[in-house]
TrEMBL record:
Protein name in the entry: tRNA1(Val) A37 N6-methylase TrmN6
Domain Methyltransferase small: 33-176
A Pfam family this chain is assigned to: MTS
GO molecular function: N-methyltransferase activity; nucleic acid binding; S-adenosylmethionine-dependent methyltransferase activity
PANTHER family documented for this protein: TRNA1(VAL) (ADENINE(37)-N6)-METHYLTRANSFERASE
InterPro entries the UniProt entry points to: DNA_methylase_N6_adenine_CS (IPR002052), SAM-dependent_MTases_sf (IPR029063), Small_mtfrase_dom (IPR007848), tRNA_Adenine-N(6)_MTase (IPR050210)
Superkingdom of origin: Bacteria
N-terminal signal peptide: none
Single biological process term from Gene Ontology: methylation
Keyword list, A-Z: Methyltransferase, S-adenosyl-L-methionine, Transferase
Methyltransferase among keywords: yes
């Protein structure tokens, strides 16, 4: 990590990806890299990252899978500018779109995201429950982390609208919100693959990673839990390899 005033430059994927981001406010971290490692994509796919921030998850997918057509959608102009700079600095082609994910279909189409035109959507929506989460005085951080009642449904609806039939939605969510997540996905998605993420073997899951297929009909699959630390408290070797860009999660394997 290097320091440049109010920004830092941070290495991800074992140095394969370097991202400039603000010191304060929302910062990309493990969630973004786990989401990228759980996202199935192939060369030639059109891939859209909702709520892209500085571009971490989408750019990580593009670093792993050459030849995708990447769009980074972000509501905050400052973060979008950082995402554009990060894409250029890493020599990754990406279309950065300043847009509210809850916008109308017409607004999406005007931004080049027409219905039924995308192969993969990945998202890390704001997921903290406002009833249990103290709002941050940093409005950018609050916008990135705190969900409204309709946040999840509106983001999934937007993803469903732009995905092709058979397209993939990949997302990360808090584990205690799994019921509401499954309810939102029940409208238009199937063939779910679910991966719970635990801090360690002794504690409940903190996150769930899910891949869902638009129009999918296959039974839901629940994968073995991913433990961030092993029984002795040591970082999990598999997780460390994934964070170093040396592997993917089973959800990314067709």
């Amino acid at each position: 990590m290097t320091d440049s005033g109010e920004f830092t430059e941070d290495a991800f994927l074992g140095g394969q990806l370097r991202l400039r981001q603000r010191k304060s406010g929302h910062r990309a971290g493990h969630d973004a890299m786990l989401l990228a490692a759980a996202t199935p994509a192939r060369s030639g796919d059109r891939v859209v990252d909702f709520g892209a921030g500085v571009g971490a998850a989408g750019l990580a997918v593009a670093r792993r899978v050459a030849g995708i057509e990447l769009a980074l959608v972000e509501i905050d102009q400052g973060l979008a500018d950082l995402a554009r700079g990060n894409a250029a600095a890493n020599a990754i082609a990406a279309d950065v779109i300043v847009l509210d994910v809850t916008s109308t279909a017409a607004a999406f189409a005007a931004a080049g995201l027409s219905p039924d035109g995308v192969d993969v959507v990945l998202m890390n929506p704001p997921f903290n429950d406002p009833a249990r989460h103290r709002a941050s005085p940093d409005k950018t951080r609050e916008l990135a982390h705190v969900a409204t009642v309709a946040t999840l449904e509106s983001w999934i609806h937007a993803g469903r609208r732009i995905l092709k039939s058979g397209g993939v939605l990949s997302l990360i969510w808090r584990a205690d919100g799994l019921v509401e997540l499954l309810a939102a996905l029940d409208r238009g998605f199937g063939s779910l693959a679910i991966l719970p993420v635990h801090s360690d073997a002794a504690t409940p899951a903190i996150r769930v990673l899910i891949c869902a297929i638009k129009g999918g009909k296959a039974p839901t699959r629940m994968h073995a839990a991913l433990l961030l630390k092993d029984e002795s408290g040591v970082p999990n070797k598999q997780v460390q390899e994934i964070l170093a860009g040396k592997g993917v999660l089973p959800l990314a394997i067709p």
